[in-house]
């Protein structure tokens, strides 16, 4: 929705209330973030001359993928963090790491049942559980301590997490992204050579509206979209086996079709997935032969195939 202040502005200037004026990809300068019409708009200067960072790879890391959705609470961390992608790769003796890029609400320590400070050897040394290397802001601050930082501090911390972790030799690094399409997403997509992005969404329209924003952001910055995972697709009653589509049933699949990307699979809403997240014990570890582990493995295989792992 267009802010009321801006509507007043256009009412007074008589300019058209075209939506495209507010496209987040239009004229974006820090002194005019809403792209308001102005006579002294700064000239467009090429990226290099503006001193913007060039994309680079993370030392020692083979492939890097981002698990994202502009929507919060749809299961990004649960999916990224519980080895669902990792298992088939790990089975082949390859090394996998996960980087929690959520500075304000890190989830990886809990999901991996990890605590303690990563040692410092000029660079941060990741912690390990289930054979997976992980790094998170949550290792550096207490579980109950809020990070009360302004943007510049957050970006500095993110850059250190991206460039100053000693991963050793990893075949795959998974980045668990926070919700939104802001600073963190921009920094990652501008600074890191990503092999692809996986979008997670529930089937509900209200989640998909934001997921589509995420899709368009990755398209805009030329990061390959590996596909959408539809999380919480269906709920099967453990007592009577009745199936309920709590958040709708097919939204993410239709969105995938519409945007020309692959629908990677459906993950049901299930109490055990939630409980295992709190226990810090991934489904593929606690119930390796269960139906959910099988679903995650299939999705993981698809992703690994797509990035050539
Ligand atoms: N398929 C599922 N079945 C049951 N619970 C789930 C499922 N997927 C995720 N959850 C639960 O939903 C909640 C949100 O999941 P999660 O924290 O992974 O989302 P997120 O997208 O990473 O959130 P944020 O945007 O805050 O980073 C958690 O309590 C998690 O355990
Ligand atoms: Mg998360």
UniProtKB/TrEMBL annotation:
Source organism superkingdom: Eukaryota
InterPro entries per the UniProt record, alphabetical: Mrp/NBP35_ATP-bd (IPR019591), NUBPL-like (IPR044304), P-loop_NTPase (IPR027417), YlxH/NBP35 (IPR033756)
Cellular-component GO terms for this entry: mitochondrion
Keyword hit for Ribosomal protein: no
Pfam short name (any one): ParA
Keywords: ATP-binding, Iron, Iron-sulfur, Metal-binding, Nucleotide-binding
A GO molecular-function descriptor: 4 iron, 4 sulfur cluster binding
Gene3D superfamilies: P-loop containing nucleotide triphosphate hydrolases
Any one GO biological process: iron-sulfur cluster assembly
Family membership: Belongs to the Mrp/NBP35 ATP-binding proteins family.
Listed PANTHER family: IRON-SULFUR PROTEIN NUBPL
Protein name (record): Iron-sulfur protein IND1
Originating species: Neolecta irregularis (strain DAH-3)
């Amino acid at each position: 929705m267009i802010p009321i202040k801006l509507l007043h502005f256009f009412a007074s200037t008589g300019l058209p209330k075209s939506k495209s004026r507010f496209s987040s990809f239009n004229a974006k300068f820090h002194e005019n973030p809403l792209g308001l019409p102005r006579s002294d708009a700064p000239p467009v200067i090429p990226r290099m001359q503006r001193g913007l960072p060039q994309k680079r790879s993370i030392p020692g890391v083979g492939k890097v993928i981002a698990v994202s959705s502009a929507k919060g609470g749809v299961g990004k961390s649960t999916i990224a963090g519980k080895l669902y992608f990792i298992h088939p790769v790990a089975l082949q003796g390859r090394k996998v790491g996960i980087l929690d890029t959520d500075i304000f609400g890190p989830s990886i320590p809990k999901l991996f049942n990890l605590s303690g400070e990563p040692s410092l050897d000029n660079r941060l040394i990741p912690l390990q559980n289930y054979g997976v290397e992980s790094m998170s802001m949550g290792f550096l601050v207490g579980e109950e301590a809020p990070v009360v930082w302004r943007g510049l501090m957050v970006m500095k911390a993110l850059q250190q997490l991206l460039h100053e972790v000693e991963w050793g030799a990893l075949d795959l690094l998974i980045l668990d992204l926070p919700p939104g399409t802001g600073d963190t997403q921009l920094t990652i997509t501008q600074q890191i050579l990503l092999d692809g992005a996986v979008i997670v969404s529930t089937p509900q329209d209200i989640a998909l509206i934001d997921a589509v924003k995420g899709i368009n952001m990755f398209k805009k910055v030329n990061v390959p979209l590996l596909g959408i995972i539809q999380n919480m697709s269906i709920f099967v009653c453990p007592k009577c086996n009745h199936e309920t589509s709590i958040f709708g049933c097919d939204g993410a699949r239709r969105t995938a079709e519409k945007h020309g990307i692959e629908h990677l699979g459906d993950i049901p809403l299930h109490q055990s997935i939630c409980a295992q997240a709190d226990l810090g014990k991934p489904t593929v570890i606690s119930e390796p032969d269960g139906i959910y582990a099988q679903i995650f493995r299939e999705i993981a295989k698809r992703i690994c195939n797509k990035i050539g792992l």
